[in-house]
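Work Package 4 report. The design task specified in the project plan requires that, given a folded chain encoded as C-alpha cells, an amino acid be chosen for each position. We show below one input record used in the internal validation round.
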C-alpha cells in the first residue's frame, strides 16, 4: 500500500531549488487551483518590468519606428507560440484574443453553418465542455450534445474509415483536450476520425463536412500539444493558464486551410484596407490575423509572453517534464484519497474521474471529489473549502464552469438541476447541498511549481478534520474492475496523421517575364532605349545591418542574391532582428570571408576577432529560431554562446544571438505562405545604386553644408548597396526595366525608400542629419534612392559578377 500511494519525483534537486527561488511569496501557502489559472514567477514579472522600462513600445497600428518595432515583436511572439506547438505560420495562424471564451465566441459568430443551398450545418459538442462552449449554441440553428459514452463508442473505433455524407453542409464539433472538471484527456485521435466523417454514424449527425474546434485551455498549461501530428481546425487557449501572467490575453489558432469556413461580419479598427463612412462599404485586410484582431491589441501584455516561455527555459523545465510532474502529484493525491477510509471501513471520499490515474496520456493534474461522513452523508464542499482555507490551502469548489461534466459525474438529471435552482442554488454560490444532495464538488489541481508538500497539506487537513479515527487505508473493493473498465475505453488504435508534404515551389519575380537584352540590341546601345555603364563596386553584408565586405575582383551569385550576403543576423533577447536603428555600432562589426578555409571572420575595434565556419554541420543540432523581416517569417540556427558573448561585449547589450539562415526551402515565408528565394535582406535579392546619383547628391549636400567633406565611397556605403554602377546620367536607374551586368540579367523590382539609416556614417558609426535632409528637400519628402534588382532566369548566363565589366540597361517603355 505504501508503494501504491507514494510519490514519484520527476524534477531534479537543481530544478526544485530554481523553482523555490522564484516562488518565495507562496512559501507558506498551498495553492491548488492551477486549472483555474496558474501562478507567475517573481523573476518572470521582474524581467517583464525591466524590459518595459527599457523599451519604447506603442500602438502597432502606427507607422512610426516604435510602432513598427512593437508590431515586429508581436509577430515574433506569434512564431514562438507556433513553434511551442510544433507548427508554423504556413499551417496555422495565431489570432490574439482576450481569452479562451472570446476565441470561442469569435468562431461561433463567424463559422458558416449555412450552405449556399440553404441547408444547415450542426454545432455538436461533447457534454464535458466548459460553459463558454455551451454559449456557442445560440449561433447555430441545429445543435447536438454528444455524450462521453457516445464519443468513445463511435470515435474510439480501432480503424479509421471515411464515412460518406449525403448533404452539402459544414458542421463543427467542439471538445476539450482536457476536461477542466475531471482532468480526463480526451483522445486527440478523434480529430482525424471526425474529419473522416465518423460522427455521421451517430443518429442525427449525418451533416456533411466536419470541422474540429479543440478547447485546449486546461490542456496547454501542463501538456504538449503537437500540431504537427494532430490537426484540429481551431484551437483555443489562454496564456494565464500557461504562465500565470499576463491575464487578458488568449489565442485562437486557425488552420490556414480551414479559414474558408469563417465569414467575418463585424470589423473594427485596424482590420480594414478601406472603409467608407457615408456608405456601408469596407474591404477587409487579407491577412487572417489582421482581419480578425479588431481594435488595438494588448501589445504590452503580448510582449510579456516572451518571459513566460523564458521562465520554462530558465527553470530548465520542458513541457514533457511538467506534464509528468503534475500527473504524478495528481496520482499521489488521488491514490491517497481513494484509499482513505473511516474507522468503520466506509470510504471517506467519492472521486469523479474517467481514469484511475494509471497513464499520463489519459489523465491530467486534476483530482475532483466530494467527502462523505462515516454514515454516508455528503459533506458540503463549502465546509471543506473553508477548513482548507483556514490552513492556507486554496482550492476550487462547485461545478468549475463545466455543467455537463458536473452533472454526469454527480449523476444529476436535468430535473435535479432545475430543482436545485428553484431551491436557491446558482452557479458560483456556496449553496453546496440541496436535500442532502451535492450541487458541486471539490477540485484540486496542480501546476508546474506545485510540490508534494502542497498535496500533503491538503491530505492532512482532510484526514484531521473529516475522517473518523482510527483511519483505515485500503483500496476499494471494486478497484481492479474499475481500473480495467476505465483504461480500456482509451485503448483504441492510435492512427496519427503524418506531416503533410510542404509546398516546395519557389516564389518567382512577380509580373511578366522580362526577356534579357540580346547582343544585337547591345550593338545598338546608342538607341535612347538603352543606357550603358560600368560596374564600379560590389558589396555584401554577411551579417545583416553590420559592416560591408567590399569584393576585390569578382563574386558568385545565387538564387537568393550574392553568395553569403545577409545569411546571418543578430537578434535581441525578444528574438527580433537588431539593426543600426537600434545600435549604430553594428556597422563597426567588419566581416571577412575566407572562401578557401570556408570561414567567416568578424572584427570590432578594440576587441579580438572571432571566426565561424561558413557551413557548420554541428550548428543544425543547436536550437532553431524564428524571427521576422519585413513581415516575412525567417528561420535560422543559433550560432552558439561564444559568438553571442562576443556580440554582447562589442555592442554593449545583453541577450544578443547570432542566427544563420537555414538552407531548406522554408527558410523565408511571406504572409501569403509563399516560399521566398531571399536571404535576410529586407526587400529583394540586390540593391543597386548609381554612382552618378551619389556624386549628384554629394554636390547638393556640399551646397547646404560647406564643411561637409565625406569622401564618395563613404557616402556610397551609407546606402548599403550590393551593386554600384557608374551610369553617365544621375537617377537614370529609376527609369530602367532590366539591367545586364556582363551577361547576367536582372529585373528592376522597385525603388528603395530611405529612412534615418542613411544618416549613420558606416565608417565611424556617427549619426548626422545628412544626407536625409538634402534628399527630402530635393524630392519634396519622397526619399527614394537606389533600385531593387531580382534575378531573371535565362539560359547561358554566368554565375559570377566581375568588377569593371560593362553594363547595359533598358529603359521602361512609355505608356504611349
Amino acid at each position: 500500500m505504501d508503494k501504491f500511494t507514494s510519490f514519484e519525483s520527476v524534477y531534479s534537486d537543481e530544478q526544485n531549488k530554481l523553482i523555490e527561488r522564484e516562488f518565495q511569496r507562496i512559501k507558506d501557502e498551498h495553492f491548488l487551483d492551477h486549472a483555474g489559472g496558474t501562478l507567475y514567477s517573481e523573476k518572470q514579472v521582474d524581467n517583464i518590468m525591466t524590459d518595459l522600462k527599457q523599451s519604447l513600445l506603442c500602438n502597432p497600428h502606427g507607422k512610426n519606428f516604435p510602432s513598427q518595432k512593437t508590431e515586429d515583436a508581436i509577430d515574433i511572439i506569434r512564431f514562438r507560440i507556433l513553434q511551442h506547438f510544433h507548427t508554423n505560420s504556413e499551417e496555422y495562424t495565431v489570432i490574439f484574443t482576450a481569452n479562451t471564451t472570446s476565441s470561442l465566441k469569435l468562431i461561433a459568430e463567424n463559422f458558416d453553418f449555412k450552405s449556399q443551398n440553404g441547408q444547415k450545418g450542426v454545432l455538436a459538442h461533447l457534454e464535458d465542455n466548459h460553459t463558454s462552449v455551451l454559449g456557442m449554441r445560440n449561433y447555430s440553428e441545429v445543435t447536438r450534445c454528444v455524450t462521453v459514452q457516445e464519443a468513445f463508442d463511435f470515435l474510439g473505433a480501432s480503424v479509421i474509415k471515411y464515412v460518406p455524407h449525403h448533404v452539402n453542409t459544414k458542421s463543427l464539433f467542439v471538445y476539450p483536450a482536457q476536461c477542466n472538471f475531471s482532468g480526463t484527456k480526451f483522445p486527440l485521435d478523434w480529430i482525424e476520425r471526425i474529419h473522416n466523417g465518423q460522427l455521421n454514424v451517430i443518429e442525427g449527425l449525418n451533416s456533411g463536412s466536419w470541422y474540429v474546434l479543440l478547447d485546449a485551455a486546461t490542456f496547454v498549461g501542463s501538456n504538449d500539444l503537437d500540431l504537427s501530428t494532430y490537426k484540429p481546425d481551431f484551437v483555443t487557449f489562454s496564456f494565464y493558464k500557461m504562465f500565470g501572467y499576463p491575464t487578458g490575453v488568449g489565442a485562437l489558432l486557425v488552420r490556414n486551410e480551414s479559414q474558408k469556413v469563417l465569414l467575418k461580419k463585424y470589423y473594427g479598427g485596424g482590420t480594414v484596407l478601406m472603409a467608407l463612412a457615408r456608405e456601408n462599404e469596407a474591404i477587409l485586410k487579407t491577412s487572417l490575423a489582421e482581419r480578425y484582431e479588431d481594435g488595438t491589441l494588448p501589445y504590452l501584455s503580448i510582449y510579456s509572453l516572451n518571459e513566460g516561455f523564458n521562465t520554462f527555459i530558465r527553470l530548465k523545465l520542458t513541457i514533457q517534464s511538467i506534464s509528468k510532474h503534475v500527473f504524478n502529484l495528481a496520482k499521489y493525491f488521488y491514490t491517497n484519497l481513494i484509499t482513505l477510509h473511516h474507522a468503520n471501513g466506509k470510504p471517506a471520499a467519492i472521486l469523479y474521474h474517467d481514469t484511475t490515474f494509471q497513464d499520463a496520456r489519459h489523465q491530467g493534474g486534476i483530482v475532483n471529489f466530494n467527502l462523505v461522513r462515516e454514515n454516508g452523508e455528503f459533506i458540503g464542499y463549502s465546509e471543506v473549502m473553508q477548513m482548507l482555507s483556514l490552513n492556507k490551502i486554496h482550492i476550487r469548489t462547485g461545478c468549475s464552469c463545466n455543467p455537463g461534466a458536473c452533472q454526469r459525474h454527480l449523476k444529476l438529471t436535468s430535473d435535479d438541476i432545475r430543482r436545485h435552482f428553484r431551491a436557491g442554488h446558482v452557479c458560483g454560490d456556496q449553496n453546496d447541498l440541496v436535500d442532502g444532495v451535492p450541487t458541486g464538488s471539490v477540485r484540486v489541481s496542480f501546476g508546474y511549481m506545485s510540490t508534494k508538500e502542497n498535496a500533503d497539506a491538503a491530505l492532512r487537513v482532510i484526514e484531521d478534520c473529516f475522517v473518523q479515527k482510527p483511519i483505515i487505508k485500503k483500496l476499494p473493493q471494486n478497484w481492479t474492475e474499475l481500473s480495467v473498465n476505465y483504461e480500456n475505453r482509451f485503448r483504441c488504435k492510435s492512427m496519427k496523421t503524418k506531416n503533410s508534404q510542404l509546398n516546395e515551389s519557389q516564389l518567382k519575380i512577380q509580373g511578366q517575364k522580362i526577356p534579357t537584352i540580346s547582343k544585337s540590341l547591345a550593338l545598338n546601345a546608342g538607341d535612347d532605349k538603352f543606357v550603358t555603364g560600368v560596374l564600379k563596386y560590389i558589396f555584401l553584408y554577411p551579417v545583416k545591418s553590420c559592416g560591408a565586405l567590399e569584393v576585390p575582383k569578382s563574386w558568385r551569385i545565387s538564387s537568393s542574391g550574392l553568395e553569403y550576403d545577409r545569411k546571418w543576423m543578430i537578434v535581441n533577447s525578444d528574438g527580433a532582428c537588431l539593426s543600426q536603428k537600434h545600435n549604430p555600432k553594428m556597422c563597426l562589426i567588419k566581416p571577412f570571408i575566407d572562401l578557401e578555409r570556408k570561414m567567416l571572420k568578424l572584427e570590432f575595434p578594440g576587441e579580438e576577432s572571432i571566426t565561424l565556419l561558413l557551413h557548420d554541420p554541428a550548428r543544425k543540432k543547436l536550437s532553431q529560431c524564428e524571427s521576422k523581416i519585413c513581415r516575412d517569417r525567417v528561420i535560422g540556427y543559433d550560432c552558439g554562446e561564444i559568438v553571442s558573448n562576443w556580440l554582447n561585449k562589442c555592442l554593449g547589450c545583453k541577450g544578443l544571438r547570432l542566427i544563420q539562415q537555414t538552407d531548406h526551402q522554408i527558410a523565408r515565408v511571406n504572409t501569403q505562405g509563399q516560399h521566398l528565394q531571399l536571404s535576410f535582406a529586407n526587400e529583394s535579392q540586390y540593391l543597386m545604386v548609381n554612382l552618378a546619383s551619389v556624386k549628384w547628391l554629394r554636390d547638393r549636400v556640399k551646397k547646404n553644408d560647406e564643411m561637409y567633406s565625406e569622401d564618395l565611397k563613404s557616402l556610397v556605403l551609407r546606402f548599403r548597396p550590393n551593386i554600384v554602377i557608374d551610369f553617365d546620367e544621375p537617377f537614370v536607374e529609376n527609369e530602367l526595366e532590366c539591367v545586364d551586368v556582363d551577361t547576367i540579367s536582372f529585373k528592376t523590382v522597385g525603388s528603395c525608400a530611405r529612412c534615418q539609416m542613411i544618416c549613420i556614417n558606416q565608417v565611424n558609426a556617427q549619426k548626422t542629419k545628412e544626407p536625409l535632409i538634402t534628399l527630402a528637400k530635393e524630392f519634396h519628402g519622397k526619399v527614394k534612392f537606389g533600385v531593387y534588382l531580382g534575378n531573371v532566369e535565362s539560359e547561358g548566363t554566368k554565375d559570377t559578377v566581375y568588377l569593371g565589366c560593362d553594363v547595359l540597361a533598358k529603359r521602361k517603355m512609355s505608356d504611349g
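Residues 493-525 have pLDDT under 50 and may be disordered. Validation will be extended to a larger panel in the next phase.
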